[in-house]
Amino acid sequence: MTESENWVVAFADADETQRSLLGGKGAGLAGMTKAGLPVPPGFTITTEACRAYYDAGRTMPDGLWEQIEAAIEALEAATGKVFGGDEDPLLVSVRSGAVFSMPGMMDTVLNLGLNPTSTAGLAAATDDEAFAWDAYRRLVQMYGEIVLGIDGSRLHEPNEHDRVDGQAAVRRLQTIARDQSGSRVPEDPRKQLRRAVAAVFDSWMGRRAIDYRSMEGIPDDLFTAVNVQAMVYGNTGPNSGTGVVFTRNPATGEAGLWGEYLPDAQGEDVVAGLRTPEPIAELAVRHPEVHERLVELTDQLEQTYRDMQDVEFTVERGKLWMLQTRAAKRTGRGAIRCAVEMANEGLINRQEAVGRVTPDRLEELLHPVVEPDDDTVTLVTGLAASPGGASGMVAFTADEAVALTEAGNDVILVRTETSPDDFHGMVAAQAVVTSRGGVTSHAAVVARGMGKCCVVGCEGMTVDYGEQLFRTPTAVVTAGDVITVDGTSGTVYAGLVPTAEPELDEDYETLMDWVDGVKRLDVRANADNPADAAAAHRLGARGIGLCRTEHMFFEGERIEEMRRMIMAPNTVARAEALAELEPHQTADFEALFTEMAGLPVTIRLLDPPLHEFLPSRSEVAETLTDLKLRLSGTGNLAEIDHILHEINEQQEILDQVERLSESNPMLGHRGCRLGVDYPEITAMQARAIFTAAVHCAEKGIDAHPEVMVPLVAFAAEFRQQRDIIRATAAEVFDDAGVEVPYHIGTMIELPRAALTADEICADAEFVSFGTNDLTQTALGLSRDDSSRFLPSYVRAGIIDGDPFQHLDEAGVGALVEIGTTKSRSVNPDLTVGVCGEHGGDPASIQFINGLAIDYISCSPYRVPIARLSAAHATLEHEAASTA
Ligand code: PEP
Ligand code: MG
User: Fold this and answer.
1) Alpha-carbon gap, residue 413 to 395, rounded angstroms
2) Which ligand is nearest to the CA of 774?
3) Ligand 1 within 6 A of CB of 837
4) How many CA atoms lie within 13 A of 238 on its CB side?
5) Is 0.85 topped by the overall pTM?
6) How far apart are CA 369 and CA 485, in angstroms?
7) Ligand 1 centre and the CA of 748: distance in Å?
8) What is the pLDDT of residues 623-638, one digit of tens each?
9) With contact defined as beta carbons under 8 Å apart, do 725 and 708 qualify?
10) Ligand 1 in contact with 749 (CB < 6 A)?
């Protein structure tokens, strides 16, 4: 960093494409200024200046202040006013502006330049003494809170909007400031500015900013820019006002200006939610020509930026000023409709439309919707600020919301209005309700940003923090009571109201069609029952990538049959027990083939160690103790006989449990090792699969069975199992006189299998990476126990995240890559998939897309996310290769 570096640049001279240097707000102001829009003049102090401030140990680096002073002089020249001057003074705002918008997370100070003399000058120039002193009061409050670090509640009074006696208020606040912090707001405008800029730099490392960044994954080293801008006033009477508008509705995506306007107010009043603003359409009635101009300018902004804009504006005595434009945060539904309609309008192309919807937003759309019935009690209705539905216990403070959530409860945060200090409570809560505020209040903006359901501005609702309750015209709800929030309709209900899966509309279907047209990877689902298969199919799965057959053995009477099979003393008895299981398996497979007609259905042979199907050792021991007690308490011979028989049975189970017990069951007798030792299990499952396929063929249903052998370490294991499967298929087809095409393949879940994939896959028709077990075995990290200590690894920065959620690219990913390359080297036609949990994780999909892999398979409700993530991965790959 050198002194000659340009740390300060006027809006009119800035290059609006340099977002990382100017921040989002600075880039928007530069862009609007260049496009000739009415923007109050000002300058941006760059993110590099902020970096230099931190490098210098939180002090202004050499030369920065001189550049700021020069920019102020230029601003004075441009406006013909003197900064903090005695007559009609130039006043400025200081606002943060990071590269990624962080609504409400960072600090702002307005009206810098006011002191007793310049306030008198402002009063004379505006002919409004009350206004001038009110402006000074606001400066002292903001400066006191942000620069002097005084607790805001000490500086705010309930009736401050009445502008009773601004001069007295300033005196009182200056005294409070001195008592609380040892200093007052300085009178020298330049001192005010210098300290305000430093305070905004400091707010980058404030708690709420850090929390927000960690939630949104924004790096700390991007730093914030600071924008210094000439003040314009929306609180100068009925011809003035301020508003926030979106070029489309950010909740629904519907085209047309949407937002609100607060007459005779400053922007901060809208954000603070202290007064409920009017819908923007009212502006057309109040000031038709201003409304018309606003529509024109916002249209121009949307065309220029080719995206939905979130615009702040102020009207000062009938003149419209544009204060900010940025890409609007939007809900999932809003994002999809907006993307589809913009593509249909020709503003963006279809690929861009696909890129505009993030997996997070799509996920939100798949969330439940509230389904009230005739008995549901409506507590209150308000403004639908962020859609979705959630139920939970009422908490009135952010800390309480966090504590209740940590204790395992679902929580609804209820406030009069929220402020940035409530952020951690909003993160913890399932939904947020405020009695005041509009759809652009802090609560609304932040909840929408998090995709969290939110209702604001609930008329008739009063929150009493002291009593820990809220009142509506018909009810009193106390802390801990359960309520349900519908952020789509803006309704708050008493108690727990059922929720249902959302309807996916035509815009969703259109976008997902485009998604499928873009992506390279196929997406299948992990499903083991007809209901899951149907859901997966509806959500766009192109087949089943993993049917875990063991899940079919846990239902109803089957577990008893399974236990009889495991307890069987010899092969004949085992064959009898298996024969009882077989028709159930056949029916299950038939249902899956029917649901996925024409699509592949990958059925994995039994995988878990057998003792998982038996009761636990302690459970059996307890039953035995009970039986022995009953024995000692009875003299009835018939009962004694019966109890003795039961004791015998339980003893046998206990013996078997002990025989099967293993020190490391995950590395023990499981996967294909079961099939090697009990070939009759493999044969039974294969018979069920092929019989089901034959039944389907006889009904004209196009079944595509793929039989998958799990946890293979040696090529010979796979070959042995494959031979059993093939022989069984031949028998079934012979008996039926019908043949159904099928495939036999294997899983790669062990490092040895990945490293010898050329041997193992030489005779396979497909292979699927079981990245759950592969992570467990590659890292030597138990998938069942690691959650206890992994968080401390993440906190200590040893690993970035849970490797069972996001693929460990350097280790497990390398094994997947080696396995893919080796298997394809001997078998170029092999179908290769990934069926571990990573198949539904956007970051992992991005990595998988870069390998020669054909499909991913994930749980049914992740299928749309996986499809979209696969499309994004393709787009990013294409962008990188053309760059
Ligand atoms: C895997 O190990 O990744 C896998 C898909 O199988 P499971 O999770 O059933 O062990
Ligand atoms: Mg596995």
Assistant:
1) 5
2) 1
3) no
4) 2
5) no
6) 10
7) 10
8) 999 999 999 988 899 9
9) no
10) yes
